[in-house]
């Protein structure tokens, strides 16, 4: 199977001099969901990005980011991560034969994804602070010129991720009305918007999340009429953190809540909803 870069070479920022670092990413299934479709009265499809090599859509961006880093003769890449980015960066760096450094915020990591990164030879370092502080440290290393940053702030990441939109259009044509996806930090929404605009499709983008999004974010990244390449407003550009940041902070809150529950406490009355929910 051709690599993602080879499939879309003329639509990605690569040249004949770019060494392609691939693990067989992309070409993920677009699965019909007939029961949900009947329930909602729509034709619903699910883009299964878990079929990518490390189980994440981030592999699409990482193949481009690591290939471009290798083209620039980089020896080390760095990312701040609590999960998916770490696993993806470690896998593609190992494939390229370069070093991956992962900076993880203290006490807010996905153990499974972290195990992936370590198993693939990444150097994992814990930062005493939040995800944003870990990302700031990664950016300092990148600014020194000793490391290449491969978080979603790297534009090569978004260039690779836009290929998911290409695949959807190839299968459904221009009949797609709506695309719904998590907002996270806005990077993937922006990537899809670029991909649809370049394909001539203009679906409505509906982004959701576990916390309030920037005002007007989903409107700002929608391809406009006659636009060949949308330019997201400042509100819609990827935040300094991505979905991992919110996931990590939620895990941290759960751990703190668990510690509080282990402390001696007064007997609480059983909520009625819990009682009615049994049986």
Task: Compose a concise summary of this entry.
By secondary structure, the protein is an alpha/beta fold.
Can you give a write-up of this model?
α4 (84-96) runs parallel beside α5 (111-119) and α7 crosses α9 (187-199). The protein has 12 helices and 8 strands. A 4-stranded parallel sheet has the order 5-4-3-6, with helices on both faces. A two-stranded antiparallel sheet has the order 1-2. The chain is an alpha/beta fold and 279 residues long. β7 (178-182), α9 and β8 (204-208) form a beta-alpha-beta unit. Helices cover 43% and strands 13% of the residues.
Topology diagram in text:
Blueprint: H1 4-7, E1 30-32, H2 34-40, E2 45-47, H3 58-71, E3 76-80, H4 84-96, E4 99-105, H5 111-119, E5 123-127, H6 131-143, E6 148-149, H7 155-161, H8 163-172, E7 178-182, H9 187-199, E8 204-208, H10 217-220, H11 243-262, H12 272-276
Parallel strand pairs: 3-4, 3-6, 4-5, 7-8
Antiparallel strand pairs: 1-2
Helix pairs in contact: 3-4, 3-7, 4-5, 7-9, 8-9
Which terms summarize this structure?
279 residues, alpha/beta, Rossmann fold, four-stranded parallel sheet, two-stranded antiparallel sheet, 8 strands, globular
